Each structure stands twice: as C-alpha cells, then as structure tokens.
Amino acid sequence: MDVRRVINVELAGRKYPLSVKTNDESEEENIRNGVKYLNGKMIQYQQKYKDRDVFDYLVMSALDAATHMLKYRQSHSPDSLFDKLRNIDDKLSIFLSNEQ
Q1: What is the per-residue pLDDT for 1?
Q2: CA nearest 32: which of 15, 13, 10, 14?
Q3: Cα–Cα–Cα angle for 80, 82, 84, nearest 5°?
Q4: Quick check: 30 pLDDT over 80?
Q5: CA-to-CA distance for 5 and 19, rounded, in angstroms?
C-alpha cells in the first residue's frame, strides 16, 4: 500500500501542500530541491529584469529548468552513451594497432 503524507512548500510567495510517499525520502528531497531551484532562479530574474509580474519570473524560471532537463536527457540518452563508447573503442583500437 502506498502511504502518503503532506509537505508544505512555498513557491513564488505562495504556499502549496503536496503529497509525497511516506517511505520515499528522495521524492520529498527532489521536490524541495526543485522549489529551491525555481525560487532561486526567480530571484535572479527579478534582479535582472525589474518591474515584471511574478508570473513572468516563474515562467522564465520554469523554462530554464525545462531546458536544463532536456539538455541532461539528451546528453545521457542511450544513443549518446553508445556513441561515446564507440568513440573510445575506436581510439583504443587505433592506439593498440600503433603499438604493434
């Protein structure tokens, strides 16, 4: 059975109750880190772009987070890893053939 509990987070000055699995500490940690990241990005955007709406800062922060996530996924995809391994194998083959 999936037992859940409520945690409270504050994002963009508003409080949100969120449900997390009781036995999964990493879920709560990921949520809290995500909130911390977005709040930090919002502060950066508020300092850089004055006189904007809070929603604008939140959207820019969410876009920044999504872009980072997509770059990470792309660089850690199975195809990308396979290409890197193939490149290492090719270099090793060339190195070993020159040693003989």
Answers
A1: 65
A2: 10
A3: 70
A4: yes
A5: 6
The rounded distance, in Å, linking the Cα atoms of 29 and 80 is 28
Cα separation, 59 vs 53, in Å, equals 10
- In one-letter notation, the amino acid at residue 35 is V
| Residue pLDDT, tens place only, 51-94 | 999 999 999 999 999 999 999 888 777 777 788 888 888 888 88
Round to the nearest angstrom and report the end-to-end CA distance of the chain.
Answer: 62
What phi and psi values does residue 17 have, to the nearest 5 degrees? -85, 130
Contacts of 17 (CB under 8 A, 6+ apart): 6, 7, 8
pTM for this structure? Answer: 0.70
Tell me the three state secondary structure of residue 10: strand
| Average pLDDT of span 39-53 | 95
Contact between residue 22 and residue 45 where contact means Cβ atoms under 8 Å apart: no
